[in-house]
Amino acid sequence: MTWWHLEDRAPYAGTYTEALAKFSTVLAEQIPLRSPACDFALLLSGGLDSAVLAYLMRPPVCITVRYPGQDRLDESSAAAVIARDIRAELVVVEPNHVDFAHALPHMMRALDYPVGNASTFSEHMAYRKVSDLGLRVVIGGRGPDEFLMGYVRQALVLFGPDAVLNAGLEAYRPLAAKLLHTAGEPLDPAEAAARLVLRGSTRTGG
């Protein structure tokens, strides 16, 4: 079943401000209509995608995953603020290496391929907690970050590697290397986006 044909859509003719207002209205109207009629949980990372869903869907329970000692990757404080704002219960899952060793065979069997995404383990542990809570429905924010340009890789495409790296994001140099053409010529935007989506090995070996 095909839901849309983006290539058939004419370019939006209004201003950026008008487009933003229209998008905000559609988002605020449509997302709540898709809230489950039963009790459900929301996977809440504290990022843009799940935060938007949290404020618009008002889930009774939010699940977030944190790893003690990994403060740079810990978004539980942001998740706590969001959960408090919407008056939801926040359940924090803290997996360890023992959990990973036990979960890995189950994840590989369920996925039918070797795990290649670090978030898969976090999601697996979050889903297990949802099941332990007796809930049968869980909402995730997979996709909106890409749609709303919420990742550094989108900034790399929009503004170019130099602008992003010079803004203090030097740690993303291996990712930025994917946008550097071998001949030194600028990449077509579509090719730049495709390189970031593929996310294979970088020229720096990262």
Largest sheet: 4 strands, parallel
What is the CA–CA distance across the termini? 39 Å
Residue fraction in strands: 5-15%
What level of helicity do the residues show? 40-55%
Report Rg. 20 Å
What would your notes on this structure say?
This protein is an alpha/beta fold and 206 residues long. The protein is built from ten helices and four strands. It has helices at residues 16-33, 48-57, 76-86, 97-111, 119-132, 144-147, 152-159, 161-165, 173-176, 189-198; strands at residues 41-43, 61-65, 89-93, 138-139. The protein has a four-stranded parallel beta sheet with strand order 3-2-1-4. The longest helix has 18 residues, at 16-33. It is globular. The two termini are 39 Å apart.
SSE inventory with pairings:
Layout: H1 16-33, E1 41-43, H2 48-57, E2 61-65, H3 76-86, E3 89-93, H4 97-111, H5 119-132, E4 138-139, H6 144-147, H7 152-159, H8 161-165, H9 173-176, H10 189-198
Parallel strand pairs: 1-2, 1-4, 2-3
Helix pairs in contact: 4-5, 7-10
State the main characteristics.
4-stranded parallel sheet; 206 residues; disordered C terminus; globular; 10 helices; alpha/beta
Short description:
The protein is an alpha/beta fold and 206 residues long. The protein is 48% helix and 7% strand.
